[in-house]
């Protein structure tokens, strides 16, 4: 489940970026430049795959204590990036406006416009690709494996939503999608931090004082795992999605709770910040939502009926 949510979020964000850029060049009468955006996307996908391969080769060069330290570092780094992404998405409600401004700057520049749009699409999507590799690697260490099926399902769902918004013109509750997945990813981030601490304990970097509870070793009389065991019916699900540990140390539990509390606080605070102002204030009866381009009826303070982005229509 964790990899499904992570891939879904990252691919959806990339799909929105591509859709916003493509829609913008189409609105400005330069639809032929869309090929540069598409080329940037394919280039970013290829670069992301190359990054994953190189990352795996680097990982293969470590063993023993060095491997544990490396894995713990990557897991905590992934948790920090994941938390930052969650808070950033909650705070920046007008991502499309920022992308349009960047695209406008490219179109207005004297440089090669095609190269500029290629670079903008490439960097935006490649960033999501790097994050996906790091996040999934953290999940791989924590859970001992990844589900290719659930990852593909997450990617397909995200692509379908992007297609529905930008091609079919459907109303999709993006805010609901992002809010629900953000809450779940906060638990994932806390689990990554906790397991990163666990790797440091195994490497001897952080002292280990024993588990404060242990439900892992005991098996049922029929040889099956107890429900709360990390391989049990509830435990395996809770481990993947909420970072459940069947035998954590006190430091792991404290780090989990601190991460959960801190990221939840920052996300809640960021979610309460008002949305950015719509740039065109001359015709308030025909405003467009800066996130999904849905038309919004004028009022001094309004929300998009499609994605609930807060608007400041003066």
How many separate structural domains?
Answer: 2
Cα-to-Cα separation, first versus last residue = 43 Å
Name the overall outline. Answer: elongated
**Computed CA radius of gyration, to the nearest angstrom:** 22 Å
Instruction: Round the mean pLDDT to the nearest integer and report it.
Output: 81
Order of helices and strands: HHHHHHHHHEEEE
Strand order of the largest sheet: 1-2
Q: Could you give the count of β-strands?
A: 4
Derived structural class: mainly alpha
The biggest sheet, with number of strands, parallel, antiparallel or mixed sense and barrel status, is: 2 strands, antiparallel
**Beta-strand residue fraction:** under 5%
Q: Low-confidence runs (pLDDT<50, min 5 residues)?
A: 276-286
The share of residues in helices is 55-70%
Number of helices: 9
Task: Give me the secondary-structure topology.
Blueprint: H1 2-27, H2 34-59, H3 64-91, H4 95-108, H5 113-143, H6 148-166, H7 174-203, H8 235-242, H9 250-271, E1 287-288, E2 295-296, E3 302-303, E4 310-311
Antiparallel strand pairs: 1-2, 3-4
Helix pairs in contact: 1-2, 1-4, 1-5, 1-6, 1-7, 2-5, 3-5, 3-7, 3-9, 4-5, 7-8, 7-9
Q: Overview of this structure, please?
A:
It is a single chain. The chain contains 9 helices and 4 strands, in the order H-H-H-H-H-H-H-H-H-E-E-E-E. A two-stranded antiparallel ribbon has the order 1-2. A two-stranded antiparallel ribbon has the order 3-4. With 314 residues, the chain is mainly alpha-helical. The protein folds into 2 domains: 235 residues, no CATH class; 41 residues, no CATH class. Helix 1 runs antiparallel to helix 5 and helix 3 packs antiparallel against helix 7. It is elongated and about 70 Å long.
């Amino acid at each position: 489940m964790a990899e499904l949510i992570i891939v879904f979020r990252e691919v959806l964000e990339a799909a929105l970026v591509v859709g916003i850029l493509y829609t913008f060049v189409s609105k400005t009468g330069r639809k032929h430049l869309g090929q540069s955006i598409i080329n940037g996307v394919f280039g970013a996908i290829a670069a992301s795959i190359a990054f994953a391969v190189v990352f795996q080769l680097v990982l293969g060069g470590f063993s023993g204590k060095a491997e544990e330290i490396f894995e713990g570092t990557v897991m905590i780094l992934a948790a920090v990036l994941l938390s930052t992404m969650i808070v950033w998405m909650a705070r920046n409600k007008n991502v499309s406006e920022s992308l349009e401004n960047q695209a406008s700057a490219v179109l207005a520049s004297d440089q090669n416009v095609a190269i500029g749009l290629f670079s903008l699409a490439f960097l935006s999507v490649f960033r999501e690709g790097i994050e996906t590799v790091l996040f999934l690697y953290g999940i791989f260490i924590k859970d001992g494996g990844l589900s290719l099926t659930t990852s593909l399902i997450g990617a397909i769902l995200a692509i379908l939503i992007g297609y529905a918004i930008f091609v079919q013109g459907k109303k999709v509750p993006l805010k609901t999608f992002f809010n629900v997945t953000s809450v779940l990813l906060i638990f994932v981030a806390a689990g990554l931090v906790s397991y990163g601490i666990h790797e440091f304990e195994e490497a001897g970097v952080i002292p280990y004082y024993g588990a404060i509870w242990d439900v892992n070793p005991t098996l049922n009389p029929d040889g099956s795992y107890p429900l709360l065991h990390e391989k049990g019916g509830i435990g395996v699900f809770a481990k993947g999605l909420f970072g459940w540990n069947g035998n954590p140390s006190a430091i792991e539990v404290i780090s989990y709770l601190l991460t959960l509390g801190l990221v939840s606080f920052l996300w809640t605070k960021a979610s309460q910040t008002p949305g950015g102002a719509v740039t065109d204030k001359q015709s308030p009866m025909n405003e467009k939502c800066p996130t999904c381009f849905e038309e919004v009826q004028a009022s001094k303070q309004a929300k998009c009926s499609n994605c609930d982005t807060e608007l400041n229509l003066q």
